[in-house]
Write a structure and sequence with these properties.
InterPro entries: MdtP/NodT-like (IPR010131), OMP_efflux (IPR003423). It is a lipid-anchor. The protein is of the alpha+beta class. Helix content is about 65%, strand content about 10%. The chain has a four-stranded antiparallel sheet with strand order 1-2-3-4. The chain starts with a helix and ends in a 6-residue tail after the last helix.
């Protein structure tokens, strides 16, 4: 009895020493707290208003029904978006896997077999000498049949398994926010490409009108040459101007093809015509934008919320890594029947059961656990920097687009006045040329300047519309 008591004491002391040693943590673990502060305004001196365009649904923000139809199709067919949806499902399955780890594992087991052992072994001598069934010789080899249930359970005392499950939940939420951010970018990319297509259509229409006007001017110069009012040089310069303008339409046509196919790729379909209404492009009025206050970015931007979920997961990973230094407690149990003959399998004498507990902790050579712990801390610091960088990037994006909307509007107003002035100068130069009071080079230069200014006007309108789309995306709009 004393011997058993002493053995119990020694075992308890050994387990206690093991637990204390396992609980000792390494020092100098690096951690960092995130900074969520942002400036109070995007532009100094502007009035503060919490009305935010980023909360407007994209179907309400975009009024062009052709554009709305394209976005609708893309949200169903875009391959990259569908790949991301599968990533979300993978993250969801990871939650189930982590949740199952801290629940008991229960299973059924059955088996049959036989084994022939040597006669001069302990088991062999037992089989030869032990009379299992009175009056019958033991079968050789002795069969073995078993059926039963078993269970294993790791007690999650330190929260390692539960924290791993919570981290998996955060990564699932991060994948959802990643999908939302992809939707935001997809909506913006389709809208920008659509407006680019409208601009190219208007440039093409402008080129065709100029070809017609320049061709008529060329015919007039030819008539004037016949009447000796101009020489052959003037005819050739006008002809060169017509040919140059004609070549522009093929460059624009190639850009139209590429832009259509870019849209078709985003929509998830093979090349085809993109329905659109290109009339009066320069008369399009950009949607009204309310940028709200910078702190709303933390709530509206999916990429910021994604970085926040990644940071939360990284913090939980530290707890999981820390728990590996503590003792691991496990329980195993089993119950069933085992016999050498199937007819004896369900008899009470064949019943067997077991129950065992174990305690294990790292004692010597914990380098792998330490490395995992320090790695998780470094990843947490990385996640903090990534979170802060995402906030900074979001703020700068909005600030840039706020300035661009204002500047592009002013530029468009001035470009419109320039186009009006050059249109008038075309009429004046033509009249002066017809009355021999202006050189033909003045007419050519005026026509070229007018065409370039109209191209610039269309490009400025495109920049204005793109700025509206981009600030909508930067504010976190488009994913709801």
């Amino acid at each position: 009895m004393n011997k058993r008591f002493n053995k119990g004491i020694y075992l308890a002391l050994a387990l206690a020493a093991l637990a204390v040693t396992g609980c000792k943590l390494p020092a100098d673990a690096v951690q960092r707290t995130e900074n969520k502060s942002v400036p109070g305004e995007y532009v100094k001196g502007t009035a503060q208003d919490t009305i935010n365009t980023g909360k407007v649904k994209w179907k309400e923000f975009f009024k062009d029904q052709n554009l709305v139809a394209l976005i609708n199709t893309a949200l169903t067919n875009n391959q990259e978006l569908n790949i991301t949806l599968q990533e979300i499902q993978i993250s969801k399955n990871e939650i189930k896997a982590r949740k199952g780890e801290y629940l008991p594992f229960v299973g059924l087991r059955g088996g049959a077999g036989f084994e022939k052992v040597g006669e001069y072994t302990r088991n062999g001598a037992t089989e030869k000498n032990l009379e299992i069934v009175r009056g019958k010789e033991n079968p050789e080899p002795l069969p073995d049949y078993m059926i039963g249930a078993y269970a294993n359970w790791e007690l999650d005392i330190w929260g390692k398994l539960r924290n791993a499950k919570k981290a998996a939940v955060n990564r699932y939420l991060s994948s959802v926010e990643g999908k939302n951010f992809m939707v935001t970018n997809l909506v913006a990319e389709i809208a920008n490409s659509y407006y680019e297509l409208l601009a190219l259509d208007n440039q093409m229409e402008l080129v065709k009108k100029n070809i017609e006007l320049q061709t008529n001017a060329l015919e007039i110069v030819k008539i004037q040459k016949e009447s000796a009012r101009v020489n052959e040089l003037a005819v050739r310069r006008f002809q060169a101007q017509v040919l140059n303008t004609q070549s522009l339409q093929y460059d624009i046509q190639q850009k139209i093809v590429e832009t259509e196919n870019r849209i078709n790729f985003l929509v998830g379909r093979f090349p085809q015509h993109v329905d659109r209404s290109s009339s009066n492009f320069t008369d399009l009025v950009p949607s009204q934008i309310n940028s709200g206050i910078p702190s709303q970015l933390l709530e509206n931007r999916p990429d910021i919320r994604q970085a926040e979920q990644d940071l939360a997961a990284a913090k939980l990973d530290i707890k999981v890594a820390k728990a590996r230094f503590y003792p691991q407690v496990g329980i195993s149990a089993g119950i069933g029947y085992q016999a050498f003959d199937p007819t004896y399998l369900i008899k009470p004498q064949s019943l067997l059961y077991s129950l065992a507990g174990d305690l294990a902790a790292p004692l010597i050579n914990r380098n792998a656990i330490k490395a995992a712990y320090y790695t998780s801390n470094s990843k947490q610091v990385q996640a903090v920097y990534n979170y802060e960088r995402t906030i900074l990037n979001a703020y700068i994006e909005v600030a840039n687009q706020v300035a661009k909307i204002d500047n592009s509007k002013k530029a468009f107003d001035l470009k419109s006045q320039q186009v009006d002035a050059l249109n008038q100068s075309i009429d004046i130069s033509n009249d002066l040329f017809m009355s021999a009071r202006a050189d033909y080079m003045e007419v050519l230069m005026t026509q070229r300047d007018a065409l370039e200014s109209k191209f610039d006007l269309i490009e400025t309108k495109l920049q204005q519309l793109n700025a509206t789309v981009n600030i909508y995306r930067s504010l976190g709009g488009g994913w709801e």
